[in-house]
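Researcher: I'm preparing a figure for a lab meeting and need a structural model of a single chain. I don't have an experimental structure, so a prediction will have to do for now. The sequence is pasted below. Please return the structure as tokens so I can convert it later.
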Amino acid sequence: MKRELDAPDFGRELSGLLIEVDVDQVLRAQGADPGKLRARQPRAVDLAERALREGMQVLAPRVLCRSFTVQSVLHVCQPLR
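Model: Understood. Here is the structure written out token by token.
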């Protein structure tokens, strides 16, 4: 017996968001030190810049968000000495 699951209700969608990514962030995400890589392998930096230019053209960032009502707040305070 196959059951269909209801899609979650995310409330609303925000689109048209601007994402700013620079080549140093791309290099760090790959585990590289941007300064050292520029000195040792400038060709790798050129490739990362190209990948960034081409990749940013196909990104379409979206945020799905949903609000919740707070029903209660529990707070435990432990005095410090």
